Write the structure tokens for this entry.
Amino acid sequence: MSAAPDTAAPSLTDSASGHGRGDDQQDPHRDGGGQLAHGADHPAQRRAEGRPDFLHVEVADTGIGMSEAQQKRLFKAFSQADSSTTRRFGGTGLGLAICQAIVGNMKGVVTVRSRPGEGSVFQFEFFAPEVESQSKTMPHEVDSKLESRQQARILLVEDNPINQKVATRMLARLGMEPEIACNGAEGLEKARAETYDLILMDMQMPIMDGPTAAAALRAEPGISQPPIIAMTANAMSSDRQLCLEAGMNDFLPKPVRLEDMKQMLAKWLVANHASPR
């Protein structure tokens, strides 16, 4: 599958490897001299063989593009092409590092080619054997609890439009329709003006982040104090502690799974609203 940009794609010569060309990580498909080791497990070998379990995916955009120096650090965790990107566009700099790890575990490779002002093309190739479905259903008692709270008022505080849609559709499957705030400041204003049963709040947002908004809300005892559930890709214990110290009640790791969302809502929507710390 592929997505073609509206303009000519950057040249293949302007390409960086998802295994971190120019950084400290060693490409597992390169030998000791830095050459690609085209063994039986390498994506290039599977492509040449025309194997049906080999997939090639390409995604192209017509955005701002990147320099070669920016591409070299693109796949490092918590790194972004532009140091100002966090405030202008949002994000943590983890997405491509996670993609690299996932594709690498599937014996694949990720590459990018880009030029400033001409957009970027990301490609990944990996081995995808057919597996049997292992879908699981939630315990009946969880669903019955949620059914009794489908009229609950939920505030979703999230700056990323895609994450907004994913969470909204997930909640819709549970019979709930959230109100949306696009950053912590907007969420704080809505919480001051309205009464909610639960708040789902992203950690890192422009203008005001989640912990700051949560702490500000908890500092106003005269208004409603619903449970606040943090949603973030930062799963380290220090991040969890930061959530709790800010007055949040619990933690949902991203990407959020439907089962986890069900369990979290069942836990906090049916619980008595105890005073936060």
